[in-house]
Amino acid sequence: MRYVKLTLAYDGSAYAGWQVQPGQRTIQGVMETALAEIVGRSVRTMASGRTDAGVHALGQVVGFRADTDLEPESLQRALNARLPCDIAVLEALGLDGPFHPVRDAVRKRYRYVIHDSPVRNVFARHYAWHVRARLDAAAMGTAAKCLVGTHDFSSFESAGAPRPDSVRTIFALPVFRGQGDGRNVVTIEIEADGFLYNMVRAIVGTLVEVGRGARPPVWVGEVLASRDRGRAGPTAPPHGLFLVKVEYRTMP
Amino acid sequence: MRYVKLTLAYDGSAYAGWQVQPGQRTIQGVMETALAEIVGRSVRTMASGRTDAGVHALGQVVGFRADTDLEPESLQRALNARLPCDIAVLEALGLDGPFHPVRDAVRKRYRYVIHDSPVRNVFARHYAWHVRARLDAAAMGTAAKCLVGTHDFSSFESAGAPRPDSVRTIFALPVFRGQGDGRNVVTIEIEADGFLYNMVRAIVGTLVEVGRGARPPVWVGEVLASRDRGRAGPTAPPHGLFLVKVEYRTMP
Q1: Which of A43, A212, B43, B128 is deepest in the core (most CB within 10 A)?
Q2: Mean pLDDT, residues B57-81 taken together
Q3: Which residues contact B115 (CB under 8 A, 6 or more apart)?
Q4: Is B120's CB within 8 Å of A90's CB?
Q5: d(Cα A96, Cα A17) in Å, to the nearest integer?
Q6: From residue A87, how far is each of A18, A83, A230 by CA, in Å?
Q7: For residues A143 and A119, is the Cβ–Cβ distance under 8 A?
Q8: If interface means Cβ-Cβ distance under 8 Å, which residues of chain A face chain B?
Q9: Average pLDDT, stretch B121-135?
Q10: Which positions in chain A touch B244 (Cβ < 8 Å)?
Q11: Residue A88 and residue B123: Cβ atoms within 8 Å?
C-alpha cells in the first residue's frame, strides 16, 4: 500500500498537543518515531486537525505516505505494540491514491464534557471541566440552537491562527445531562463542516455562562451576531474536549 | 463533634494503597497529613478496609476521633481544598459515639471492570483490566451464581493476611456487559458481608478463565468446594477494582 489512513484514540493529558514542537512530547512526534521504527525510514504524518495540549481524541484521523509491503492490520498491530499506552490505533486502512486528512474532511464531531457538582469527581479530573455551580442544561440547549446553521463564527475564534474565512456550518449542537451515575455530567457535542481555532472551547465557555444563569439564552445569538470575540464567554479548558470523529468524502 | 465518619472517593493509581507505609505515598498518609493541618494535631484514621496499591474507591468509609469544633461541612471543604485532586471527600458526618469502620460494617460492595477488545481503550488503562480475548459474559454470570450464598471462600483467599475464619456470605454477584459505548466492558459486582484478602480479584481471575472458554462454568463450583487456592484462577490486576460502598448497622 502506498498511502495509509489511521484512526487514533489518545489521552492528551501527557502531551503538548498533536503537532511536533522542538523539545516537547507531542502525539505526532511519538507517532512518527514509532512509524520510522516500523517502516525503516522517516515518515511525515498529517492529522485532520491539530489538537491542543490536554485535548483528547476518540477518533482522530491521520494520513501518511507509507510505501510499505506491510498489510494495514500488521501495521496497526506493530504500532499498538510500540506506542505508549495512552495512544491506540483503532483502525488502519491502505489506500492507493493520496489522501489529505484536512482538505478531504467533510464533517467533524467534537464532544465537551462538564462535571457540575460541588465536589470534584476524581476519575474525571483529566476528562471533564469541573464547574462547582449546578448548570441549567436546558437553558444551554436553548442557547445552543441559535448557533446551528451557517454563520460567521468570528466571535468564537481565538487569535493566533486566523482562517481565511470564518463562516462554518454547524449541523448539530446537542446539550444533554446524563442520568444515574452521569447525573452530574453535562455533555455538549458539536458537529460541523469545520472549526475555527478554539471554536468549540469558546462556544462551551459561552454556553456555560448561560448554564450558570449569568446570561440569558438569547445572549448567545447576540454574541454570534456581533462577530466580536470580546463579547463571548471565556475559553473552556482543554481537558474536557474530545475529537470524536472525522468524516470524509467517499474515496475514489 | 467527637467522632467523624468520612466517605471518600480516590483514584488509587498514584498510591501504594490505603495503609501508611514508611517511605511510600499512601492514601491514609495523605489524609492524615491534611487532617493534622486542619485540626492542629496528629490524627489516626481507620478505613473500612485497606485497599491495595492501584485499587480505587467510589465510597471508602473512614473514621477517626476528631474532638473539634468544626462543623462536618467545614471539615469536608477544608479537606477537599487541601487534598490532592485524586482524592475527594464526598460526605462528612459528625458522631457523638465511637464508630469502628471495620467492625461496624455489615455489607460491602466491590466492582471490577474488564475491557475486552483486541485494541486497548486508552481512557480505561488505569480503570479496567484489558483482556484481548472476547469474554463470554453469560457463562461468567452462570459460574458466578454458584458463589452466591454462605460458603468457605478459602479457595479465593491470598496468603499473607489470613482471617480467623474464611466463611463469608455473598449476597449478589451480577456479571454484565455494557451496551453502546460500553459494549467492550464487562462489569462484575460483588456484594458480601465481608471479604478475605484478595477475594474479589481471585474470583474475577477465576471467572475470566470461564469467560475465555478455558473452563466450563461448573468448574467454579468445584474450585469453591476444594478450599484450595491453587485450584482457582490467577489474581486479577488491582487497577480494575473499585470499592463502591460500605453499609453500616444503624447508628445508635
Answers
A1: B128
A2: 94
A3: B121, B124, B128, B129, B130, B131, B184, B185
A4: no
A5: 29
A6: 11, 6, 36
A7: no
A8: 9-11, 56, 76, 80, 85-90, 119-123, 125, 127
A9: 96
A10: none
A11: no
